[in-house]
Amino acid sequence: MYGEGELNARLMLVALSPGQNEDREGKMFIGPSGKILDELLQSAGIERNSLYMTNLIKCVLPKNRKPKQDEIEACSPVLDEEINMLLPDIIVPLGYYATRYILTKYAADPPLAHTDFQAVYGKLIYSNDQKTFPLPHPASLIYNPSYKQETMKKYHKLEILSRDCKWATMCPMKWYFEKGRLQRKWIELYCKGDWESCIRYQKEASGTYHQDWMLPDGSLDESLI
């Protein structure tokens, strides 16, 4: 099955493959993992219909086995076509296989070991002009419910990523970028990304003085003076 949802969505969720329920009904996330996803999205203040959701593998994997490389190679061009058509601002791969594929596609150097992928979940990545925000697959909580609070915290970031910083249009970073003095990554990762983590935003929100040449990570770039 192909994806579903808002064609102009800012966020595109990419899961591994449909389950039997999803394949039979032609809908995304209607089984047990779908109930968990709905709970995670609701806790983050995100409406499911505001997203576009799709799969890396377009058919059911027998007995929920791991995908084979030739299956990924056969199905991934369809996913690539969806991405090229919809041009999502942020791709949100869910779980190991979707994350590995998307990070590799955009040359973002995915971890080598399966267990090391935990380190990239909940981290906004910008590579080859594409933002990626990997998250654990909701189904992981079926097997590891003790990770629920940690996973929920990562999903909460989706609400931040769903909109630009309220000061993005007047921030000096925008001016520096438009004048060719600042790399695009600062705008994408912070002003149009995880603005809550921006040190400039935090200081502005608290009324604390900060130099115009302070970068979003808090470092000072005196070349901008």
**How can the largest sheet be summarized?**
6 strands, mixed
Number of extended strands? 6
Q: Might you state the CATH topology name of the largest domain? A: Uracil-DNA Glycosylase, subunit E
Stretches where pLDDT is under 50 for at least 5 consecutive residues are none
Give the helix proportion (percent range).
Answer: 25-40%
**Binned strand content:** 5-15%
The global form is elongated
CATH architecture classification name of the largest domain: 3-Layer(aba) Sandwich
Q: State the CATH class of the largest domain.
A: Alpha Beta
**Total DSSP helices:** 9
Summarize the helix and strand pattern as letters: EEHHEHEHEEHHHHH
Mean pLDDT across all residues, rounded?
93
CATH superfamily of the largest domain, called what?
Uracil-DNA glycosylase-like domain
* Rg result: 19 Å
N-to-C span: 53 Å
Major β-sheet strand ordering: 1-3-2-4-6-5
Number of domains: 2
Output the structural class: alpha/beta
Provide structural commentary:
The protein has 225 residues and is α/β, with parallel strands linked by helices. It has two domains: 4-161, Uracil-DNA Glycosylase, subunit E (3-Layer(aba) Sandwich); 172-224, no CATH class. The protein has helices spanning 20-25, 32-44, 69-86, 96-105, 140-143, 148-161, 172-178, 184-191, 199-206; strands spanning 4-5, 11-15, 52-55, 90-93, 125-127, 130-132. Strands 1-3-2-4-6-5 form a six-stranded mixed sheet. A hairpin with a 2-residue loop joins strand 5 and strand 6. Helix 2 (32-44) packs across helix 6 (148-161). The longest helix is centred in the middle third of the chain and has 18 residues, at 69-86. It is elongated, with a radius of gyration of 19 Å.
